[in-house]
Design brief:
Blueprint (H helix, E strand, L loop, with lengths): L19 H21 L5 H8 L3 H29 L1 H18 L6 H11 L5 H12 L5 H32 L4 H8 L1 H17 L10 H10 L6 H5 L2 H32 L3 H13 L4 H16 L1 H23 L4 H25 L8 H22 L7 H23 L2 H5 L13 H11 L2
InterPro entries: MFS, MFS_dom, MFS_trans_sf, NO3_transporter, NO3_transporter_NarK/NarU-like
Family: Belongs to the major facilitator superfamily. Nitrate/nitrite porter (TC 2.A.1.8) family.
Subcellular location: Cell membrane; Membrane
Length: about 450
């Protein structure tokens, strides 16, 4: 493992479980992976819940929106908390408190109570921001995009694994003699207990930064060091943050929407059973094992050669291909082609996720948590808006997906325009091309350009 003087890792050694950066890397992606079991554990069981609670299509749409709506505010809050108290305590608090509604959703006996529990569970979605913050402060500029994308991607695999595993847990309870109406309730205790335990693991086995935990004195020093550009409102004035907000809404927002509706989509459109539909839907999430990391890798490579503009253009290209893929998927009426096109658009969607967070650490180094929180919240805003399409009784799921595909293409154009802005061009020299991340010739060239 190669470290900078600051202690940040300049390489990713997956077999390293001892150094502070890599220990945080492994624990944070595993934690984020488990968070998906709590956040979306109920999604593949919705056909059973729908029958048990007599839910309408509109009510299911509202439940989908609830699962991601509160995450908007949770991500803003926990992004701010990361800057103030560090990721270790922030994550521990989130995991322990978030486990409660996951385990208690089984007490729901009506649409209203189920909706409230689903809303509360949505807070767990803030786990993404803490994950990205933690890897951002642990890795050097030359690999931070790859580290962010890989940790988030492997964590996002939890979305796919959830769609596969939760029906199996449900089937195990049914096999043990419980009725379906009881089995889905007991099934949710499993992910809730896992999150509760992980809250203590995160507290005792990770550190806030490569140099140690953030103390109250350090936090005060950081607060004093923050300029106007480093505080929350200063970040909000940066149009680049809001462009990334839109971009993340067009990729991660669509991802969690698909996580919510995929099982229902294949059950209703292709007449599959819940286990078969869950397995196919799970393939969508399992693409994260490599696809999101690819987005970060391409982002880092483009960044080293073309600076921040290169990272943004890479993101724009992936978004364009994602939008085209969704449009094609929405028109597939045979199961094999539906699966194939789903995997194609999933590839570019998840690469867009990774490419977005290869840009985030370079927008404002003084407020990585706030930037991560705002951009992450964009993902949930996108999910809420997409979810509204699925509440309409006048639109089929296919028509809703087509509209989403067109919208993603529009956002890709907006993202591309960002790469042409003067401010982005100026960022090529800082902090992208830090002498520690380049060869001798490149470092000398950058140094000469920086001289007045």
């Amino acid at each position: 493992m190669t470290l900078q003087e600051s202690g940040k890792a300049t390489k990713i050694n997956l077999l390293d479980f001892k150094t502070t950066p890599m220990k945080a890397f492994h624990i944070t992606w595993i934690t984020f992976f488990l968070c998906f079991f709590g956040w979306f554990g109920i999604a593949p069981l919705m056909p059973v819940v729908r029958e048990d609670l007599n839910l309408t299509k509109t009510q299911i749409g509202n439940i989908i929106i609830a699962s991601v709506a509160i995450t908007i505010f949770a991500r803003l809050l926990f992004g701010w908390l990361c800057d103030k108290i560090g990721p270790r305590i922030s994550y521990s608090v989130l995991l322990i408190l978030g486990s409660i509604p996951v385990m208690c959703i089984g007490f729901s006996n009506s649409y209203e109570t189920f909706l409230l529990f689903r809303l509360a569970i949505g807070v767990i979605g803030a786990s993404f921001v803490i994950t990205q913050y933690h890897t951002s402060v642990m890795f050097a500029p030359n690999v931070v995009g790859t580290a962010n994308a890989t940790a988030a991607g492997w964590g996002n695999m939890g979305g796919g694994a959830t769609l596969i595993v939760m029906p199996l847990i449900f089937a195990a309870f049914v096999g043990a003699g419980y009725a379906s109406a009881e089995a889905w309730r007991y099934s949710m205790v499993v992910p809730g207990a896992a999150l509760f335990i992980m809250g203590f693991v995160y507290y005792f086995f990770t550190k806030d930064t490569p140099s140690g935990n953030i103390t109250s004195r350090k936090a005060e020093a950081v607060a004093k060091d923050n300029s106007k550009e480093g505080n929350f409102w200063g970040v909000c004035k940066d149009y680049r943050v809001w462009t990334l907000f839109l971009a993340y809404g067009a990729c991660f927002g669509i991802e969690i929407t698909i996580d919510n509706i995929a099982t229902l989509y294949f059950v209703d459109n292709f007449k599959l059973g819940i286990a078969e539909a869950g397995l196919i839907a799970g393939l969508f999430g399992m693409m994260n094992i490599f696809a999101r990391a690819l987005g970060g890798i391409f982002g880092d490579k483009a960044g080293k050669k073309f600076g921040l503009q290169g990272r943004i253009i890479t993101l724009s290209a992936f978004l364009l291909l994602e939008g085209l893929g969704i449009i094609i998927f929405s028109n597939m009426s045979t199961l094999p082609w539906a699966i194939a096109t789903m995997l194609i658009f999933a590839l570019f969607l998840k690469m867009s996720n990774g490419a977005t967070y290869s840009v985030v650490p370079f927008i404002n180094k003084r407020a990585i948590g706030v930037v991560s929180g705002i951009v992450g919240a964009g993902g949930n805003v996108g999910a809420v808006l997409a979810g509204m399409l699925f509440t309409s009784e006048d639109l089929s799921y296919r028509e809703s997906l087509f509209i989403i595909g067109v919208t993603v293409i529009v956002v890709s154009v907006i993202s591309f325009l960002l790469s042409l802005s003067r401010r982005s061009a100026q960022e090529i020299l800082s902090p992208e091309f830090h002498p520690d991340t380049l060869g001798v010739k490149e470092s000398l060239a950058v140094t000469s350009l920086r001289k007045p």
